[in-house]
Amino acid sequence: MFRLIRTLASGLAILCSSALAVDEPAASQPSAPPLSAEEMAGAARIDALSIPTPGELLAALDKVGKIDWISKFRPPIARDFSSRPQMALNLGGLIADGYIAVEAKDSQQVKNLGRDIVALAKPLGVQQDIINRGKSLTEFATDNQWDTLKEELEATQNEVKDAMIENKDINLVTLVTVGGWLRGAESISSYVAEEKFYSSAGAMLLRQPGIVGFLSRRLGALPEKTRDDPVVKKTRAKLAEIETAMTFPRESPPAREAVEKLSNMLSDLLKDISRKEVK
Amino acid sequence: MNHFIRPIFIAAILLSGSLRAAETDDQAAARKAAFDVAGAFTNEGFKLRDGHWKGALELGKPQLVQVNLFAGNQYWFVVGATPQAKKVTLTVYDETGAPVATDPYSGDSTAAAGFAPTVSGSYYLKIAELEGDPATFCVLYSYK
Prior knowledge:
The structure holds 2 protein chains of 2 kinds. Chain A is an all-alpha fold. Chain A contains 14 helices and no strands. Chain B has 2 helices and 9 strands. In chain B, helix 1 packs antiparallel against helix 2 (25-42). Chain B has helices at residues 5-20, 25-42, and strands at 47-48, 53-57, 63-69, 75-81, 85-93, 103-107, 110-115, 121-132, 135-143. Classes of the chains: A mainly alpha, B alpha+beta. At the A-B interface, helix 1, helix 2, helix 3, helix 4 and helix 8 of A face helix 1, helix 2, strand 3, strand 6 and strand 8 of B.
């Protein structure tokens, strides 16, 4: 489908390329009255805008230091889970792995992950859409089109979610988001936890109470049957601990030891999620 | 990504969005208005996020959405509305509810705010209509 879209899109490119030129504006001083607690509590929170993509997370981390992204690869995970929630969690994690492979500019790893994503998506009924995406990922990786690959990965994640919604598997969408976020957070924390790379700026990237809180509430709102899945149960329980670790004052970044503890928590949870039998 | 490919991808996102979910003509128009503004920022190296929020807007009834941002990144938040909205604003607030200083942009039925947070965490976007009739809006953002 993406090929078709790209072909059709070229017609619109002319329109888009005539978009407004933006002058450097002067920063506006805040003059609006502050929001009330009720207004903030009532604000919309939606997956498509309120949860940053792995790409945003990695873009921020890239500014903290020069990262050896290849060292952040993880061994291949199983692809034959029997539980659909577990498949969805791991699919999210694999897409985040794709972002890391792109940051590492490792075309073979991108291709491998593309194959894994397709394989894991098959039993979830989103096969055809993702097969098309998998082909695009392989093509762009072969041509070393790294920026394009980032776009493609984001589109892949959205297309997986859209297919799940179409298939009336809306509950799995939350799990894809959680899996992707966990993998992104794990890669950041494992980097910042290293003694030679620890910095206050890096540690502050782990301040994400709004995201963990949102994801925890979404997991809590899943149907009982899904909540009772062993891997979902474990994820919910661990997210509560992770939320505590990622909730700290604006002025006080966590010490390296605290980051290391968080990194271990995230890493252990990801290992549990990717284990074939979760108890 | 070179400047030729980038607009194609914006168009692709526009198209894939409309294929993805049925939307009304007004929603499509609001999204197009927002994308047209956001396209200018992608030429500055900002990456457009493939996600948006849309809804109804009218005088005296602003809309709020929470976003979670990372210190070090730069963001442009954009709202596009249907022409019934003559003037719209987009204001960014921090997690305490205090408004933050932003780089403003304002156009016909569109507005944008550039912001580089120094603290990672939750922020709020407030979209308000200051002049006009009830309209449909679409919010999206780009980052680098």
